[in-house]
Amino acid sequence: MTFHDLWQFLVALIESLNIYVLLPILVVLIGCRIVKAGLFVWVTAWALAVYLTLRYGFVIAIPASVLSLYMGIVFLTLLTYVVSSRERWISFSRPLLRLMVEKKYQPLLVLVLVTLPLAAGARVYLSMTLPIQPPLFTRTVHPAPPSEPITVHDQEFDLNAVVNPFRELEESDLEQFQTHVENGRRVYYQNCFYCHGDDMLGDGLFAHGLNPIPTNFRDTGTIAMFQEGFLFWRIAKGGPGMPDEGGPWESAMPAWEKFLSVEEIWDVILFLYDYTEQRPRELEEHGE
Amino acid sequence: MKIPIGLLAKKGTFAPFAKVDASEARYERRRVCPFFCFVLLAALAGLCWGAARAQEPDLGTEAQREAGRVLYNKYCVQCHGEEGDGKGYAAPHTKPRPRDFTAGQFKIRTTPSGAVPTDEDLHNVIRQGMPYTTMIGWPDFSDDEVANLIYHIKTYSNNFQDPDYFDPPIIVPSPPAFTKESAELGRELYTQMECNSCHGEKGRSDGRSAPTLKDDAGNAIRSVDMTKRWTYRGGPTRKDIYRTFSTGMNGTPMPSYDESLTEKERWQLVDYIYSLGDSDDANYSDRLFVASTEDEIDMAQGEALFEQAQSAHFPLIGQIMEPGRAFHPAANGIEVKAIHNSREIAFLVKWHDMRADISGMNSPALQAPAESEEGGPLDEGGASEDQESAEEDFFGEVSESEHEAPSADDFFGEVEAPEQEADGFFGMEEEEEPADAAVQESAFSDAVAIQFPSAPPEGIRQPYFIFGDLKNSVDIWFADLAQEGAQRFLGRGSASVTENDVEDLAMRATYEDGEWRVMFKKTLGSEAGVSFEERQWIPVAFSVWDGWSQERGNNRALTSWFYLYVEPQQAPSPVFPMTRAALTIFGIEVILIALIRRKYKNALQLPVLQANALGE
Q1: ipTM, interface predicted TM-score of the complex
Q2: CA nearest B607 in A: which residue?
Q3: B578:A124 CB<8 A
Q4: DSSP of B98-127, one letter per residue?
Q5: How many CB atoms lie within 10 A of CB B547?
Q6: Which residue of A has its CA nearest to B96?
Q7: At the topology level of CATH, where does B62-165 sit?
Q8: Domains of chain A, start order
Q9: Do the Cβ atoms of A249 and B610 come within 8 Å?
Q10: Percentage of chain B lying above the pLDDT 90 cut
């Protein structure tokens, strides 16, 4: 890794963070250190700091369900820390006990006594008046292919072992290879570009009407992650061929075996990689 | 184009000057004048010449054109063709068809009618694309790449080398503020200039000539639906509209009004057209709220019945997933409103259609023809019988594979594509009805369908969004607009749509000024279908068929699944749950404090931390 790569990585990292949230949090934590805050203050500060960081610290928001999972872990950790020794427990609970027992804190106690129930009421009110959301289906974007061989046009394909029969032409007969790529291009622009787009960005003519949205093949997190057999399965069997976690009822990806021959499917796969200048993931060699 | 004018000016000057030259001294004073004129005109001519020279074709270097050609062959050739004639292999399924560069005619320009576009015009179209066409924008090209592409595109037409086709861009002045008065004046111009003959009375692209429109290459094209600014090819702003009036769209029936309308009139017309739409954006919805009412639901009230309901706008796209594909369906959006009164539920669906096709018939169960390579269903009459293929998929059952050759003898086989004529479109002869009579009645009627799951979804699973599947069927409420009354179908996949008991499903439809309004009404709590219980989220999808485009069965526009929400008759009051939550918390607090205080009577009894116990 060169210095330049490292620099790029750091820039990307910082760009993904929300500095205006993170800096104040850092300042407050350092402040706690300087004034030698007690354990109660520390625990509260840490819980809040983690929550605010996760909730507002990233440019792309973390899903609420993931956030509550993380916070659950954080609370458990803090609790474990606090009760791990008698001293820590006393140090943590003493401020709370003093609040409840000492006379001089009585006004503050009354305030807490009133504020907490009000906050709980407000929360209920908000949850009842916020816009209602339709049921959420968390779809697996790239579901696992079936382990059983699939049948396409009366041929069996074992997805764990299948290779693109025309891929080897890239080494042995470049001219033939180009013919297949060219044919794949024709297939793409007669069938696929209405949704996946002229430039494979997933922004074709009909993309705005689809949910889930069409895949952006230029994204390096898509076809480059897969073996060609996976693409073959997704193309031949389409949305309806996915397992339930992929949401087969709402995917608009057609089962292309209805329209394309086996050769055309392999050709269009060659074209996808060729156009986007990406490579398929190689089959893993066992025992090495 | 400036040059001939310049030459003319010179000629006109020469003759009187010669005359004056031979005249006597008493004409001395008059001599000055023509001489002055001559100088002036010569200078003017020179200026024009200079202006034309300034527009000397910039055709780039050999290397630039070659670089452009390489890009063209990777990115453009599939639609625009190797010869630049717009006949690439993807072209047959696109509408509007790709630009034919050899004709040298470009729609979106800043230059006057007939002139070639400026490089900047071409640059903008390549970069931004044209909405609702297969020409999407190409933002990832560098400026140099776009420039090279333009140099290459220019090689296809000699117009780019011919000064006769050069004209400086039309200047679009900064727009005056929009006023209702101006729009009102524009409305008169709209009728006067016969905009309505193509664009329709309310701008919904339903003029009487609309079905006959063709571009210069003879391909059928649609006039723009002015109420949908987001589909304007040249952009949605008032400046864009003004520019389109001024330049016209070369190669299409859209003329330039540069000479026939003054600047002020053009702005009035702009304001009227602008007033036809609500927004620059489509503002598509992802859910539909079924408003609750206490009143009786009487469909005779028309749209007023749905006054309190929120309108949802859903995008319609081509059904290109199952055989019988529709690559460019006529409709591109549907507006929906819904109400219920806990006894009945009613839906209003509205979409724009060029004309009402109320002859023939339609049905979701009809076999759509297999799409031809040459240009979709319009170009063919034959329908294929069966297009299923064998597969074991999430439908759970294996269906038989049977590919049959298209049979010409079937019921739909004899249908001819509607005859289209472009002649006489601008109504040169006033009394002649432009080509209306030539547009045949369609064998297929317009139709619409609303689709729900047959049963409320259990868990996450839903029926397949294209007419359901074998495991999960859908309930299809269908209106064949050539017939009275609603129909109902049971969908178990698009190859297995069967008629179902209509029960008390009622339908009422009207067509006015290019818009269909179809109402469905049904009693709640009947046997079949979802029950529309209050506070339920129910998947809903829509389909629209345009009879004129021969759409039937699978050949149609559709939406994916969206959700509808049945709003409760009475919104639950938050007071009780709020009080309960607050009291619960308060109670816990009081008990906790009481317990603590019982244990530690005063501060002295509190546990004390040994010094340095935490090692600090």
Answers
A1: 0.76
A2: A90
A3: yes
A4: PP-GGGT--SS-SSPTTSPPPHHHHHHHHH
A5: 28
A6: A205
A7: Cytochrome Bc1 Complex; Chain D, domain 2 (1.10.760)
A8: 14-129 (no CATH), 150-276 (1.10.760)
A9: no
A10: 58
